[in-house]
## 1
Amino acid sequence: MTALAGCLTLPRTVQEPPPFPAPESHDVMPEEIPNDGSDNSRFRTTLIRVIIVQVVALGLLLLLQLRYQP
Amino acid sequence: MHWINWLIVGAYVAWVVVDGIRKSKDTDTVSGYFLANKSLSWWVVGLSVMATQLSAVTMIGTPGQGATDGMRFIQLYLGLPLAMVILGVTIVPLLHGAGVYTAYEYLERRFDSRTRSLTSFLFLISRGLSAGAIMAAPGVVFSAVFGIPLVWAVALIGIPTVIYTMIGGVQAVAWADVKQMVLIVIALVAIMIVLIVKMPVNPDEALRIAGATGRLEVFDFSFDLSERYTFWSGVIGGTFLMLSYFGTDQSQVQRYLAAKSVGQAKSSLLMSAYWKIPLQALVLMVGVGVFVYYQFVRPPLLYNPAQEAAVVAERGPTYDALQNDYAEAFTLRQEAAQAVADASGDAATAAMDVFVAREADIQTIRGEALAMVEDVTGEASGDTNYIFPRFVLSELPIGLAGIFIAGVFAAAMSSIAAELNALSTASVIDFYRRWMKPDADDAHYLAVSKGATAFWGLFACVVATYAATLGSLIEVVNRFGSFFYGSILGVFLLAMVPGAKAPGAYYGLIIGMGTVGFVAFGTSIEYLWQNVIGAVVVLLVGVPLSRFIGGDLEGS
């Protein structure tokens, strides 16, 4: 019941969360994700490869549909 | 079932359970039990991610979907590759670097404990229900094979799964998934080869027969919100569904949190990006192949042997008469199918029209039989989930049937294990440790975790006995998920919006869920779109609420 109440009402006292790197206050923006040029380049390469594989797979299925659907 | 098949099934299941228990070393800490001490390589995590999603529901329900409805179900996965790439550059590095056990732990740091608790609670409900649906699929197989009540069949799957999950933690779960994927792919490829070899017509003719009834219509480019599977619902709704499932569902998040590094976690998701659609196409095509095969080899009028036995007992003479009609109609349809295979040019169109009419006659007779089932048993009569198991057990050679059944068990056990492990993690970390007992030692939390695993195993078994009657199980799982996933995704998306505050997230989530509830029960909008609606509503509500209310409400 305590756990369920935790998500339905305001707690009267704030319990300290278990220790992990805690922010000084809530509503903290997410940490910056390191993003340099090599990451962007790698992302683009990966995206292109994924698109190629999916286009080939879906293209074959589309050909199947066009060939055999009345 | 032949004893060789039994031997294969028994040997494989025993290997999975024993090896899962052996993996329990290094699980005497919370970090080892839940995250494998972040020691898993990308390929183990990648195969585990794929295997967790490729459950017995896929093995049983999807071929049945292919046999009855064709290939268009694949549209649901169109958004998956894009979702994997997006997650690889956003949520994966965020969560892996945050040092959290659950995705919802992160939400407390970003917003507040209420948002974390509510989101985790919704996960527990949705994943608990889905675990039941996933357990129902092999239960269906078991009940068909042994002729035993579904309840016992579910227990035979659930109990060993709970045991090795409780003992082995995420290490056992991940390595069981690796074995499963290898076995599943081998079984599917072998079944497809057998289908091609045993088919009375060549592949081109078989595809023509399948195409005549629309089963090769892969893409529907219409924009109709009430149409279940379209290109647009797959690309848009499917992307949101996959973003939420792989990005915020603890059963998947826990996989890549256990990876050695962020780079390895990203690589593991890319495995799904590359291979999910081709693999799903294979599974659906097996179902289409079964449909064509059954044009030339007469299938049972009712695929569920328990339902058939009940009807025969109550309405024997009536059912016999229906069987005779069915046999005559089958002969006519068989001739029509052969005519489609043999025809060419203009004659092919006329032959297809005749075949479609004969197929409609068969479906009419099947409809009468299914109505009889409902009258006699008082239950919903859908038997889509029994089509493929009946085919496997009656048409596949000895040994291959055993491999397939073993694969179904392995698929079920590893997927259920992943669900149970995730449910236990969220229960302990997000609720027990957070609200009830924050200062206990690892040994205490481990004991509670094992108890939580057992509880959720029992919950899933109870849900499973009901879920089996809800129709195609692959659709049931995705319908359950789509009810919750969109709004949960919306909270994580809101977390990335500068200025978004805890009240916006919390009330946005509630209003998002309410909106999805209205759409699900009050409109004809199909379930894939619920993912989009939930996420968008949370953002549309959360952003302005954050601006006008703002602040941290805890302690005020």
## 2
Amino acid sequence: MSDNKKWYSLNLGFNGNKEPKKSCGCGKTSGGCGDHNNDMSEDAFFEAAVDASIGDEVRKDGFEQVFDIKMDRRSAFKKLTASLLIGAGAVSTSCSVVAGDDSKEKAQIDWEEQFKGNYKLMTDKEKKGTVERLMRSYELRTGKNISMTSENAKEDVLFGYAFNISKCQGYMDCVNACIEENNQDRNSQMQYIRIHEMKDGNGFKFDEADDNYYHEVPAEGHFYMGTQCFHCDNPPCVEVCPVQATWREDDGLVVIDYDWCVGCRYCMAACPYDGRRFNWSKPEVPEAEINKNQHYLGNRMRKKGVMEKCTFCVQRSRKGQNPACVEACPTGARIFGNLLDPNSTIRWVLENKKVFRLKEDLGTEPKFWYFMD
Amino acid sequence: MRRLKVFRSLVIDSIDATTRGSRKYNIWMGFLTFIMLIGMYCYSIQLEHGLSVTGMTDRVSWGLYISNFTFLVGVAAAAVMLVMPTYVLKDIDFKQAVLIGEGLAVAALIMCLAFVVADMGGPSVLWHMIPGIGVFNFPNSMLTWDVIVLNGYLFLNISIPFYILFRRYQGKVPNPKVYIPGAILSVLWAVAIHLVTAFLYQGLQARPFWNNALLGPRFLASAFAAGPALIILVLAIIRSFTDFKIKDKTINKIALIVTVAAQINIIMLVSELFKEFYAPTHHSESAYYLFFGLDGKTALLPWIWTAISMNVVATVILTFKRLRENLNILYFCCFLLFVAIWIEKGFGLIVPGFIPGPYGKIVEYLPTKIEVGVTIGIWAMGAFIFTILAKTAIGIELGKIRYNKAT
């Protein structure tokens, strides 16, 4: 795995499919996934009963993951106490005779959503199940429909991004497009992208740059540089997550399961690029402004107390479209594409421009390059 | 079956002992309960509105909670400095102090866990972290290591004193073959909890202020100064309020531990300051912010200089044997050291890690009243738990609480 990570330096065209098929999609060794059963049995940490319970998670949907497993009395009690606290309300509604069908269904969905497994370990069927529940739940709550997908990474695709420093004029159209596309919290003015305004002649002095300007651009004697999540190939944020709520997908996107995140913000401390954002309060988007084309890992509505970040607009990029920031940029400073496609623009940039990346000494291998005309 | 009966009687007797006491005791417990209720009220506000009620932001994403957590891990680890001589080296002097030390460790660990839970964005989905039910990212995430070592240490520090007190309660002598292996294990474990907690920060290449090899050892040195310092203060209080006999010799020995640890801590501080300021690099900016302020942002300056001066004064005084053996001076120095290290290893360590941010942005952090409320609430909870544990333990040790076969 590790030598394949050096894909940026050699054999750009062939690397994606060369990698021997791992026994399991999760690609990690730490045994959260059922396919690692053999390794796990060596690990004194996971008891046999535990193995069984996680193994089942891979084949069953979220509801069954929790209820349809063999367990000893101790873990059964553990689960019961945990679920009693949270589920008591839901149960009372769903068992109630007076409550309507809608509220029963709502309670049923809430229950199943509260106890579903980690998206990373779900099968396609389970992914579809949770996406359908979320759509139905939205319909029950607001009376409006959204479309949400659980589209997986395509084969032979590895997304990369390039930023032309000479072209960017600091209009921030990308920032606005990103906020609208990704349903970011309007109250806290969350933005994944930051545009740093730097003085000509000083070089890249981020500490002297202004990333929160409110004046006419391009300002005389300044140049602009955008940062966002760089979707590192060796992402420190993924390593530190205690519950594997964030991971690197096969097409290189670093994503978060908002429903699995416990909100410890360790990933935020680990990110050297200021790429992650936290929902300090309940995110709010006016109903009329909600982007209803959603992806489970992308722009679906978040809740309070979870992390979120740029996903290169997974809901768009997996459909072959450009991310919203690329589309919105009026100067053409932003280039996005498949690094494994030798005819892509991004490949042309990497091969013909003098590109560089930020903080390369940290070994994070970002898939976000800067260049100048 | 008989054991269950004894256990039941122990629980009843200890509830009896902890609910009854002198007027001062009742006032103290009532005061703690009041503070805890304030803390719970503040936490309920935080639960409702999210962590936005704290001073934390995307720029400084860990604050008072994680600072106190880090410091208290050190306090918990310090119990080992008493355990080792008593159980392993068979130094009888510490025998009385060790139960107090372990009680302190239990209270500190529960406070640690409470601070971590208070810091979580989604406490209702914390079961995701339980191995087996959730997904435990072991061994990749240092946080999972920390969960293991903290809970393991909590278990050790509950079970060893419980075994000893359970035997004493029945008027029997505890069997060293049972508790000595546990004591040895807990010695190693205590080093592990603090080292692993240091690794939590030390392993982040994104934060140069933490990413240095001295962080772990310095954690240990400061912990072995602050923890026993607190134990000395607690022993002083216990000595004056109960019949529990603690010899001056015991306190003097603990004072020696405090002194040596504080001296090592100062040496490491000098080494750290030299590295940051002799040839300052881009990575020294956090240290500049902490000690001198950056761009006119100086929120931590008064705190860190207070801490450094208290630290130095206390260490210098403690170094002289004659001064150290004067108990009043000793208590004063222990208090200075404890506060100094709380500042230094608490927010003096956590907050500058985020300032300046990854791109040099300097945004300061100031805890809100709600955050402070939750924090003192958790401290009150720790004091409450410790008082209960200590009162029971002292009662059993003094023979006031004994198993009565007739009942």
